[in-house]
Amino acid sequence: MYIGRINVVLFILSQQNLWIPVSENSGFNRSALIPTPESEPASPIGQPVDSFSSFRFSNLFPCPLRDRKSPLPKLNWADSNELWKNMLKKEVHYARVSNCLEKHPALDAKMRSILLDWLIEVCEVYHLHRETFFLAQDYVDRYLAETSNVPKMQLQLIGITALFIASKLEEIYPPKLGDFSYVTDGACTDENILDQEILMLKALKWALSPVTVNTWLNVYMQLGQTEEIVQEGSNFLIPKYSPQEFIQITQLLDLCILDEGSWQFSYSTIAATALHHMSSNNLALEVTGLKWDDIAMCVQWMEPFALTIKDLDRVVELRKFRRVMPEDCHNIQTHADNLQLLVSESYWIHHCFRSLMSKIITL
Predict the structure, then answer these.
(1) Residue environment code for 209-242, b if the CB has 16+ CB neighbours within 10 A, otherwise e
(2) What are 2's strand-pairing partners?
(3) What pLDDT score was predicted for residue 324?
(4) How large is the angle between the packed helices 267-278 and 281-288, nearest 10 degrees?
(5) What pTM value is reported for the model?
(6) Handedness of CA 31, 35, 41, 45 (dihedral sign)
(7) Across residues 113-119, what is the average pLDDT?
(8) What is the pLDDT of residues 312-349, one digit of tens each?
(9) What is its main location (predicted)?
(10) What's phi and psi for 246, nearest 5 deg?
């Protein structure tokens, strides 16, 4: 895990990620509250990704709220239509901003990518849930959208504070305040995090419960098993989908959420598109209530990331964690070499774009 200050040396002079991996022997005592994993080789981190702004798309065919029918089955604990309407209303209430860095000249998309990748590593070390990370990611983006002129020196403080807030909401046994300041290697004190927490809560107007991309994916994948659930008379809240398939799709989400192009689409659309790429288009449309026109642009944006994940052909292993129930292990956030993948995919996209333009010019 990469710790240290987000400063001029990182983002201007070196332009490389120089945070010290906690998995290496850094000389600091590990947290006594939550055991850290065994020492592992540091993940290779390459040059931060260039802007993908040339390849971002706007969803020109948003599905009207009234036309998006509920795919939820009849529930014995809630009105499925009302539940679906509330989820859609929340998505409107927590609408995403197309460029949350527009009012921050000192920041760029590369810094955000590095920050989110580091937060994923923090989540893995403390065995935090995927939902906790995606809540923190949402808080970071919305905070930046609501503020202006944030200096780069404060970016790590914003990120770790967002994770601190998210863990208190989502985790049964969240890490202590000192554990969050510890992973910053002295860059953020307990007092800094508490002060920033107040600023963030005010900026977010205490709106802390968005329907995250992770939640949408859970709902969609559970809907894919509706027939089995109905036949067994099971509770819809008990996951029936394959944990391995879920992890494979979340690998794609972890990668593409680092890209600034994700700002152009709602969380429900991103989750549906990931299901389209990693499963099937018919299933994605069936369980989401969306039409092809609603996800077409997002499919185009996400395609290079999906191809990268598929080309890796990783063996999806369901990792086990101490103090985590086996049936909950797939919900624990894990880290991969997403920054390196983002870099490689950036060059791949630019290369294809130049090739395409040269063919058009030739014609």
Answers:
(1) ebbbbbbbbbbbbbbbbbeebeeeeeebeebbbe
(2) 21
(3) 75
(4) 150
(5) 0.77
(6) negative
(7) 96
(8) 776 677 777 777 777 777 888 888 877 777 766 554 66
(9) nucleus
(10) -60, -45
